[in-house]
Amino acid sequence: MSWWRNASIYQVYLRSFADGNGDGVGDLAGLRTKLPHIASLGFDAIWLNPWYPSPLADGGYDVADYRDIEPVFGTLADAEELIADAHGLGIRIIIDLVPNHCSDQHPWFRNGLWDRFHVRDTEDLPNDWKSRFGGPAWSRLPDGRWYLHLYAAEQPDFNWENPVVEQEFEDILRFWLDRGVDGFRIDVADGLVKDFGKPDADLPYSDQDGVHEIYRKWRKIVDSYDGERILVGEMWLPDPVRFARYLRPDEMHSAFNFDFLCCPWNAGELRGVVDSTLAAHEPVGAPPTWVLSNHDVTRHVTRYGREKTGFSFADRQHGAPTDFELGTRRARAAIMLTAALPGGVYVYQGEELGLWEVEDLPDELREDPVWHRSGFTDRGRDGCRVPLPWSSQDGPSWLPQPENWHRFSVEAQADDPDSMLSLYRQVFARRREIDGALEWLDLGEDVLAFRRNSHTCVVNLSDRPIDLPAAPALTSIPLTGGQLPPDAAAWLF
Ligand code: NOJ
């Protein structure tokens, strides 16, 4: 079977992963030293957030040069050595490609090559489109004309109607494929084609039919290289059937399943998402993916410890009362559910340590442009980007760690059989033994249970302990009186 159909992929937010040179910012040198750790956890691949030269106006999603490495992170030679090291350990490398927009420091924008961007010469705002980070999607150039940015003002959108843009990205794909990367996570994959005639309410900058042509061309390029290189889409789309169109056999290989991430901790709703996901993917023959957290959303230990356990950008529930013990208990069960499902799984760095959303960062340290663009109403995404604790000796980092995080460090958890890290290690080792189609079992109300060949996964979302059909091989927390407690999961082989 193709590696990407059931891969376990670890997401590295480089800036906050491991600091190799002690400047408080994660880097490639740091990541290289931790590759054996990632391999030992049972992951097949790493997805790295953008590593390109960038003013970091949006954490690197404002790319100034698509063919180099941000100096704070290292050099192109470091990246090549990282790829070689990873391959030596059997780990593939997926990099982030940002084709919707660049940085306002990109040479095309600095040199005023305006036909490669969306520039309008109007008195008032060209239309009512809004930036996804808040405020209008248009800002003025020094000469008074407007340019489009669906995100921060420092992120001008490319004009994909210009063939030069298309050519450039095909070259960029080849540049990195030639250096051995195994795939691309495509940022805002639904957004490249725009219909300027329509108002904001119609979302005319998302999921326009023309965008599929781009991925058909990219698929041909990645397929022309050996070793099954892949395209993974980032699209937040409301309709799973529209979503699956990106995964037709001649387009992308897979994409992030955000319906699962956003879903509340509720048996019926989770089952509904699993079913609609499987149903949407089946006709196009693509594997689903399952993801609980990433660098844009509230960490799930926090979400699951709240009254509202789902996720929505419109309402992050920042600061809402949180029961961390409950959130942690559910997070343990959730990874056993996630990893038992058919398809690919993404793990966001730090969830294997049970890290929570850091919601008490001093406001003056916040870097996410969402904070200021929302008029200081949305505290944004910095709280899930606080650097990982490795040991009790960690130096200061670009965002400060909570004081007690050393108790959650890799060092502190490594030899503790009951730690979140030990659970992840067991889950991802044993995940390799699971295969086959999913078949639901009925073990009572508010219990999710399914079989895949000889493996059974049971998740108790009810408020009472339940009986298991046989003795489990792995549980998220110990059984009580032989029963699976509430908010716990079990695997039976
Ligand atoms: C999605 C990325 O995950 C997010 O971090 C970024 O801000 C936007 N795309 C814009 O590039």
Description:
Belongs to the glycosyl hydrolase 13 family. One of its GO terms (biological process) is oligosaccharide catabolic process. This is Alpha-glucosidase. Residues 11-385 form the Glycosyl hydrolase family 13 catalytic domain. The protein has 493 residues and is an alpha/beta fold. The protein has two domains: 3-100 and 163-431, Glycosidases (TIM Barrel, Alpha-Beta Barrel); 439-492, Immunoglobulin-like, CATH 2.60.40. Helices cover 26% and strands 13% of the residues. The protein starts with 7 loop residues before the first strand and ends with a strand.
Question: How do the helices and strands line up, and which of them pair or pack?
Answer:
Blueprint: E1 8-12, H1 28-40, E2 45-48, H2 76-88, E3 92-97, H3 107-110, E4 119-120, E5 138-140, E6 146-148, H4 163-178, E7 183-186, H5 211-223, E8 230-233, H6 240-244, E9 254-255, H7 258-262, H8 267-281, E10 289-291, H9 300-303, H10 324-340, E11 344-348, H11 369-373, H12 410-414, H13 420-430, E12 439-440, E13 447-452, E14 455-460, E15 474-475, E16 488-492
Parallel strand pairs: 1-2, 1-11, 2-3, 3-7, 7-8, 8-9, 10-11
Antiparallel strand pairs: 4-6, 5-6, 12-13, 13-14, 14-16, 15-16
Helix pairs in contact: 1-2, 4-5, 10-13
Bound molecules: 1-deoxynojirimycin (NOJ).
